[in-house]
Design brief:
The complex is a heterodimer of chains A (289) and B (334). Chain A is α/β, with parallel strands linked by helices and 289 residues long. Chain A is built from 9 helices and 10 strands. In chain A, helix 2 runs parallel beside helix 3, helix 6 runs antiparallel to helix 7 and helix 7 packs parallel to helix 9. Chain A is elongated and about 80 Å long. Classes of the chains: A alpha/beta (289), B alpha/beta (334).
């Protein structure tokens, strides 16, 4: 079974390159340092109530690593919404300083690999393509694109693990790719100024793109216990597991239908088959669709 | 906030940019965000796409088809005694969301691909005619008539049929959009084939499709304009109270449609490639229709033989009250 359990609430994970990008989010979401998973200690990680902020460090490899680590830590079955948030450069013709963009295409300049997040939900930001470089860019791009140093790494890792509608890239334009250097306070201030819009976009994605209600670990375990007690074959177990997923996705609750008092344990092949068919029928729903 | 409307984004292949149709379509969707891509497959074939998410806001990919303009007809569909049977896919994927549709198992995305080099498809069909008369289905992996107002892809094929009498073209549809082609002259070698289902199946499983009555009204209009019409009771589904549903459907259809003017009637019980079914089950976890204990025979998933026979015999028997037997073409199973 590909997806066995699911968190009661779908986690939201924001990955930033810099602490100055993360700070406004940490404050708004009232997050605390997270130290409960050894791998997460490699990054500055903050968490509360299903929301996480990870500071990956600068560059696409660091972003990819942080994205992979947090997704693996939460588990694929948690199906987190992964959001890459940060500042980006642009040409003056394309964007104004402080403007927020939802990124609809990411190109890794070094490899020319392109990534396309699904843009399915209404939002109030402008959209743009973005190029990811391996080095700081001090010449404004000729094309109407944003530039950064992380997005392609984030997309590479995120779309290897999750679906393209579970990723979101939000970039605030910080500079016009000149030699001017930004100080951390400026970066925080740029994010801070767009924080309400950032929060609204994330909330919309999170609300609309729901995950399926899947069996929790107790339900999977009960079905497994029953299968062992009843001595179901491996193919019967797999069939029940598959139907359990469909049953849950359809809004069912296993405890409402699954009762196997010990005195009803099947003692013959015929009784086992009858029990299997009975459970099958309960999971499928009575009668024809 | 809510989902973006369908076609909010146009993904356009670099090679498709130069085609006049691309410019027309950009004008037709003035509010769409345009994203340039190298090859349609880099968007279409992305791994781990979620059909249930994408169905809420379909995107269009404009692309250039480079080869494989025509395919040999599939064994899952009837050839109506045409030896040289082909199908073509000028558009991939459909605006409707039928729960049993094989497209969900065949393609990794719900998004639509529109091939803008439509002339190349027509050239390929013309070349095929050098080998003899051919039967060509143009609306299998999509519903061209439903999309006619947006893409105008039926029209060139209707014109092609006028100019090439040795081809017979079938356009299969569930739409009620005959109006979109009602001003065109009906070629005798062009069949409008309507898929017909009982209203409760339309409501429960053929999401976003027109009602049975709306389809019948469209059929009636097509008949009045002299078009050849085929009715396709396909797929027949084993659902609760199916006898009453199919009996009521036949009553309604025979009341609303001029049955004497129907060319033929195709009847097929639900069957699907086993691999596609598994993909569909994974992508649509909550579908009770897809959790049925299908049997797999020669790679094809279908109802048990006794159910198939019962379902098909019931519908054939009812139809025989209204149309001669020779107009009824049951689809061979398996």
């Amino acid at each position: 079974m590909k997806r066995a359990t699911v968190c009661p609430m779908r986690p939201i994970v924001a990955i930033t390159a810099l602490m100055s990008e993360a700070a406004p989010l940490i404050e708004k979401w009232r997050l605390k340092p997270a130290r409960n998973a050894p791998l997460l200690e490699r990054f500055q990680t903050f968490a509360a109530d299903g929301r996480y902020v990870l500071v990956s460090g600068i560059g696409k490899l660091k972003s990819a690593t942080a994205t992979s680590v947090i997704t693996a830590t939460l588990g694929l079955e948690a199906d987190p919404l992964l959001v890459n948030i940060g500042v980006a450069g642009a040409s003056q013709n394309h964007a104004g300083r402080g403007e927020l963009f939802v990124v609809n295409k990411v190109r890794d300049v070094a490899t020319n690999i392109r990534f396309y997040p699904d843009i399915l939900v209404r939002h109030l930001a402008r959209e743009s393509a973005l190029d990811t470089y391996d080095h700081p860019v001090d010449t404004p791009p000729r094309d109407p694109v944003l530039v950064d140093m992380e997005a392609s790494g984030f997309m590479h890792a995120a779309t290897n693990l999750l679906c393209p509608s579970s990723v979101l890239l939000l970039k605030v334009v910080s500079d016009y790719c000149t030699s001017e250097r930004l100080i951390p306070a400026d970066v925080s201030s740029l994010i801070e100024d767009r924080l309400d819009l950032i929060d609204t976009v994330i909330a919309s994605w999170h609300t609309e793109l729901k995950t399926m209600p899947l069996p929790d670990s107790d339900e999977v375990a009960s079905l497994e216990r029953l299968s062992i007690t009843a001595r179901f074959s491996q193919s019967q177990r797999l069939e029940l597991q598959r139907l359990l997923v469909a049953f849950k996705a359809g809004g069912g609750t296993l405890s409402d239908i699954l009762v196997l008092p010990s005195e009803h344990e099947p003692h013959s092949k015929y009784a086992r088959r009858a029990l299997f068919n009975k459970i099958l029928g309960q999971l499928r729903g009575v009668g024809l669709p | 906030m809510s989902f973006l409307p369908h076609f909010s984004h146009l993904y356009i292949e670099e090679a498709a940019r130069e085609y006049p149709l691309t410019s027309e379509l950009i004008e037709r969707f003035p509010r769409a965000t345009v994203i340039t891509i190298r090859n349609y497959k880099e968007v279409f074939n992305r791994p781990r796409q979620r059909w249930d998410h994408q169905r809420q806001s379909l995107k269009v990919i404009l692309a250039v088809r480079k080869d494989a303009f025509l395919y040999p007809g599939s064994s899952f569909v009837p050839n109506f005694d045409n030896d040289r049977f082909f199908y073509t896919t000028p558009i991939i994927n459909c605006i409707y969301g039928c729960e049993y549709c094989y497209l969900q198992g065949m393609f990794p995305t719900a998004n639509m691909v529109v091939f803008v080099n439509s002339d190349d498809f027509l050239c390929a069909a013309r070349a095929q005619l050098a080998g003899g008369p051919a039967y060509l289905c143009i609306s299998y992996d999509t519903d061209l008539l439903a999309l006619e107002d947006l893409f105008h892809y039926s029209e060139p094929w209707i014109d092609f049929a006028h100019r090439n009498p040795s081809i017979t073209i079938e356009l299969r549809t569930k739409s009620s959009n005959f109006r979109a082609i009602s001003d065109l002259k009906a070629p005798p070698n062009f069949i409008l084939a309507w898929t017909i289902s009982p209203d409760d199946i339309v409501t429960r499983f053929e999401h976003r499709t027109p009602t049975l009555e709306a389809r019948c009204r469209s059929i009636r209009q097509a008949q009045a304009h002299g078009w050849r019409v085929r009715l396709c009771f396909d797929p027949l589904l084993m659902v609760r109270d199916w006898q009453q549903s199919y009996a009521a459907m036949i009553e309604q259809v025979t009341t609303l449609v001029d049955m004497s003017a129907v060319s033929d009637i195709s009847i097929g019980v639900f069957r699907i490639n086993g691999t596609y079914l598994r993909n569909m089950q994974e992508r649509n976890l909550s579908s009770r229709l897809l959790t049925h204990p299908f049997v797999v025979e020669n790679g094809s998933a279908c109802y048990a033989e006794s159910d198939r026979r019962e379902l098909q015999a019931f519908v054939v028997d009812r139809l025989r009250r209204y149309v001669p037997q020779d107009k009824i073409c049951p689809v061979p199973q398996g």
